[in-house]
Design brief:
Mitochondrial carrier fold, globular, about 280 residues, SLC25A3/Pic2/Mir1-like, 13 helices, membrane, transmembrane, phosphate transmembrane transporter activity
């Protein structure tokens, strides 16, 4: 496989793994965002699902699926494509001897650099998604939400959540990639009795999903405060980061919607790594 084919496979794998998984979990994300934005109405996970279904029907649970699919497909392309690029780039800077010794640093630096770029692509879609999911009018769609943000806030409305998004996604992705890589290494070292290259493809994909789930739970906890800020800033006009923190409170910042996010992100990350590795195995 040439370098171009390798990066193309990484980009396509990222699109599939991030776009499809995030879109598939739209109902969980919808409940989580409403719990964060309207805690007095949506007091728990079961209450959130119940109220949304009672008021708007089961079909309404997929509100926001289109900006979710588009945004996270773009993010996945940049995240996985640039992660593979930066891993090689930073390893070349350190040299083979030091790169082998400091793998974790390369994982952390590569994932942080890739996510910094990926979030610039994601941010406008995230703003539209949150507007669709928390707007009182449940019939509002992608184009209406886009026009609403543009009319009321201009182009700044699409990027006002970028700093909190970086605050959520960069630590999330650093933990996601570094924890995944180290967990995979540990599984093959201590649990699976045969070398990785001798394992069946099914076993390799199973290891990827298990390691991805462990990484997902870890990064959900690390990035949750910033996730709350992103939701509040994109659903409340005129608030800055400090205003949002005062509104939710320090305890709420760390705990509101956390159990659902752990369930969602653990499953999401496990599925992402499974899909990503499956695609790369398929195209080899």
């Amino acid at each position: 496989m040439s370098a171009f084919e390798f990066y193309l496979a990484s980009v396509c794998g990222g699109i599939l793994s991030c776009g499809l998984t995030h879109a598939g979990l739209t109902p969980f994300d919808l409940v989580k965002c409403n719990m964060q934005a309207n805690p007095s109405t949506y007091k728990s996970i079961s209450c959130g699902f119940g109220k949304l279904c009672d008021k708007h029907g089961v079909g309404a649970l997929f509100r926001g699926w289109l900006p979710t699919l588009l945004g996270y497909s773009a993010q996945g392309a940049f995240k996985f494509g640039f992660y593979e690029f930066f891993k090689i780039f930073y390893a070349d800077i350190l040299g083979q001897k030091h790169a082998q010794k400091h793998k974790t640093i390369i994982y952390l630096a590569g994932s942080a650099s890739a996510e910094f770029i990926a979030d610039i692509a994601l941010c406008p879609f995230e703003a539209v998604k949150l507007r669709v999911q928390t707007h009182p009018d449940v019939t509002i769609g992608f184009l209406e939400a886009f026009a609403d943000i543009w009319a009321n806030q201009g182009h700044n409305g699409f990027y006002k959540g970028l700093l909190p998004l970086w605050g959520r996604q960069i630590p999330y992705t650093m933990v996601k990639f570094a924890c995944f890589e180290k967990t995979v290494e540990s599984i093959y070292k201590y649990i699976v009795p045969i070398p990785r290259e001798k394992c069946s493809k099914a076993m390799q994909l199973g290891v990827s999903f298990a390691a991805g789930y462990v990484a997902g739970v870890s990064c959900a906890v690390v990035s949750h405060p910033a996730d709350n800020l992103v939701s509040i800033l994109n659903t409340s006009s005129g608030l800055c980061v400090l205003d949002a923190i005062k509104k939710i409170g320090v305890v709420g910042l760390f705990t509101r919607g956390l159990p659902l996010r752990i369930l969602m992100v653990g499953t999401l990350t496990g599925a992402q790594w499974g899909i990503y590795d499956a695609f790369k195995v398929y195209v080899k």
